[in-house]
Write a structure and sequence with these properties.
A hairpin with a 2-residue loop joins β20 and β21 (437-440). The protein has a 7-stranded antiparallel sheet with strand order 8-3-2-12-11-1-22. α1 (11-22) packs antiparallel against α2, α2 packs parallel to α4 and α4 runs antiparallel to α8. The radius of gyration is 20 Å and the shape is globular. The chain has helices spanning 11-22, 27-41, 107-118, 123-136, 142-150, 152-155, 160-164, 180-192, 196-199, 201-213, 219-223, 251-257, 263-271, 360-374, 380-385, 404-412, and strands at residues 5-8, 51-58, 63-69, 82-88, 91-97, 138-139, 176-177, 228-230, 233-237, 240-244, 281-287, 293-299, 307-308, 313-314, 342-346, 349-357, 389-391, 396-398, 417-419, 429-434, 437-440, 447-450. It is an alpha+beta fold and 451 residues long.
Length: 451
């Protein structure tokens, strides 16, 4: 049996979920509360106007389903996007931002659908932890400060400057992230429910802003949006059955190619040839005392550089994430995503719940962690904290502590190896809850809380 716990990208996010578990909520309730809290504590990574994917396991019904609440392509036309280059480690990554880069948000609809299908506590109760964080402010952890420094060009545009650089200086580690508008936004969401983002007060505010700034979302786009349940895709690995989602990450294909016991060489071979997708994402994992489990991954992309006046809600920039656009965009259709929330089952039932953030590194982080736990028998925190390597198009990127003989062999074969000086959020962020414990990623200043 798995001990009830929450693992997430920020200690405050994990604490919000654990609070709801302790109050009698199940995994769905706790995941909703934690996700809403992440939209306050982790706004460098995610937000209510973003999109996501989740997987939910109902232990009583023996039912496992995916829920797609990623962004859809709007039907309107608007102003050209603004090109932006952001330094990511030693690379310059190209983005396009502005109100016209915002796709139809899915996070509120996804949380609402999860609550209707599996929740047990009243909706207003699930909003309370996030609302408290918005009122009190949240200390900035070191990984979020590092990410903010990297994203300064977009995070300090317009309204963002007063949030992330009050007094003209970027927030430093330990300083409070104050977003007073989120108090108003969450109060509206608490009163009106998730529908507020599609047909209510928050929808009206969003439509007004995109109208003023040349965005492409219409009232119809919002009104017709729905979160969609589907069956997970499955693969057999190391004697277990792994349930996840298809998509750009290709988790099932990678695990199918990964031979247990093949070490770094085998992992590299399985990871080679992946898609190149970047963005800023967060993940949370919940298991309750009854064995129900939920893993949610959400993102704003980079963020458009526009915030709803009075609500401090950052618009997503998914239409400007050029690596997500693999075919012509069609109004009303879901955009592609790397997200891959994952559950692992053995003969005794649920063994592990896990997910990862990190764009193209998401697959590297998640598959490497799963292999370390399921194949090598590492404890979850040891597996999550272990140094990673990632095969980027121009070089194998490696954190300190990766097997030096393996890296030297690659160089002898003519491969370029780029050695990083420390663990870095570039290499993704994993959260895990399993029979042998729970773990959050130090690269993202994550946190774990037990109920």
């Amino acid at each position: 049996m798995i001990r009830a716990a929450v693992a997430a990208g920020h200690p405050a996010t994990a604490a919000a979920g654990a609070e709801v578990l302790a109050d009698g909520g199940n995994a769905a309730d706790a995941a909703i509360a934690a996700c809403l809290a992440s939209c306050v504590a982790e706004t460098v990574m995610t937000g209510l106007l973003g999109g996501g994917h989740l997987i939910y396991h109902d232990a009583t019904a023996g039912l496992t389903r995916n829920l797609d609440c990623f962004v859809t392509v709007p039907s309107g036309s608007g102003a050209p996007m603004q090109e932006l280059r952001v330094p990511f480690g030693e690379e310059l990554v190209h983005y396009a931002i502005g109100a016209s880069s915002c796709g139809v948000p899915g996070v509120p609809a996804g949380l609402g659908e999860l609550w209707r299908a599996h929740g047990t506590l009243p909706w207003p109760r699930l909003v309370e932890p996030a609302l408290r964080l918005a009122r009190d402010g949240v200390p900035m952890p070191p990984a979020h400060v590092a990410c903010l420094l990297m994203l300064e060009p977009v995070m300090t545009l317009g309204e963002g400057a007063t949030i992330y650089a009050p007094g003209g200086r970027l927030l430093a580690e330990g300083e409070l992230l104050q977003q007073p508008g989120l108090t108003a936004a969450l109060t509206v969401l608490q009163d009106e429910g998730p529908a507020s983002m599609y047909t209510g007060t928050l929808a009206a505010s969003l439509l007004e802003l995109v109208g003023e700034r040349g965005g492409v979302i219409t009232a119809t786009d919002l009104a017709v949006y729905r979160a969609e349940w589907s069956a997970p895709v499955r693969v057999h690995y190391a004697g277990r059955n792994v349930s996840t989602r298809g998509g750009l990450a290709g988790i099932t294909n990678t695990l199918a190619q990964l031979v247990p016991g093949s070490g770094s060489r085998g992992l590299l071979a399985a990871l080679e040839g992946g898609a190149a997708v970047d963005g800023h994402t967060t993940n949370l994992t919940v298991v309750d005392a009854s064995g129900n489990a939920c893993v949610i991954t959400t993102s704003l992309g980079l963020g458009s550089g526009d915030w709803l006046p009075g609500y401090d809600l950052h618009l997503n920039s998914m239409l400007g994430e050029t690596d997500l656009v693999r075919a012509p965009l069609v109004a009303g259709e879901r955009m592609a995503s790397m997200m891959a929330p994952t559950l692992v089952f053995d003969a005794d039932g649920l063994e592990l719940a896990a997910g990862a953030a990190g764009g193209t590194r998401l697959r590297t982080a998640l598959v490497g962690t799963l292999a370390a736990i399921l194949d090598e028998g590492l404890l979850p925190q040891d597996a999550v904290s272990r140094p990673r390597f990632h095969p980027a198009p121009d070089a194998v990127q490696a954190e300190p502590g990766v097997d030096s003989e393996f890296l030297v062999e690659l160089e002898r074969e003519g491969r370029t190896v780029r050695r990083w000086p420390a663990l870095h959020h570039y290499f993704g962020g994993v959260s895990v809850v399993g029979r042998s414990g729970a773990a959050a990623d130090p690269r993202r200043s994550g946190g774990v809380a037990a109920a």
